[in-house]
Amino acid sequence: MNMYTLGIETSCDETSCAILKDYQVLSNVTLSSLKEHKKYGGIIPEIATRAHLNNIDKVLVAASKEAGISLKKLDLIAVTHKPGLGGALVVGLNFAKALSLALKKPFIGVNHLHAHLFAPFLNYPKRLKFPFLGVVISGGHTEMYRVDDFDRIKILGQTRDDACGETFDKIAKAYNLGYPGGPIIDKLFKEEYKNDFKFKCGKIGLDLSFSGIKTALIYKKKEIEKKNLFNADIKRRLVSSFQYVALETIIRTILEAKSKFKMKRIVCGGGVIANKYLRRRLESEEKKGIKVFLAPFEYSGDNAAIVAGLGFYLYNIKGKKSTIKLEAQAN
Ligand code: AMP
Ligand code: MG
Q: Please, what CATH class does the domain formed by 126-295 belong to?
């Protein structure tokens, strides 16, 4: 008997619903409120929360239609209950609880950061083997884990201040490049400019720090502007040097952890994993005995398919259950 799992994700700016048949994705519908945040150059929680409220029912209907599965056929509802923006999480969690009551189907709360660690295995469950080194690089988080099982996930290192994606976004804002900054800087990046400026990215053991390099880029811009030399070419050289150092520092930290904990598998997810240079570099680390799994583009940012995926495993294999009392846990 196949099992149909509905996933619901509303932790930040994406309202997302997905339906999985066992571990196969039948639909994954995501509506982002990103455009509404554009003029502020960062996510405004109030706007994100209202967008979830306005859209979640439509996104659910679209996911059900695309999958060709009516809500009555669902066996399980998996929902992100942590971490994220408080109000945003509450919308998805309450919606899941109401559906669970109305349909008389179980629901399970999922940590969506953990869900990102299984993104490369959606549709390909046979590729999944424990233990592995898990990395989440996103707009709100930059974390590294030792993953021994679906429910045995231990944090090894994280950013001490800004997240990596957030740093891309803040630098792009300061440089008037647009929002979100990650994909824009990714496009502007030219490897030949990587050493044009000698920026440094903070690393303390397996922890990282991005606030220093962010400030350095803002000050460098001011310094060059004073000399009337700031133009599109310099801008490109600056952001290329930034991207190179930031991503190479992350890669170095991942490799250090891999050796320290003798890991043979590296699994990466989160929005920043869409970065072309980062993907190429990480893939180049795959050699004899070392496997690298990267979240495919469609599952790299926040989305409900990954939430349904981990929920399916936690419920079926680990026998986990959630009660109606489950609370949303913000950052
Ligand atoms: P998430 O928080 O997982 O939804 O991902 C959103 C974050 O990923 C934002 O901070 C984006 O700027 C960042 N991002 C998306 N695409 C890229 C890219 N190609 N390169 C670097 N960062 C990216
Ligand atoms: Mg997002």
A: alpha beta
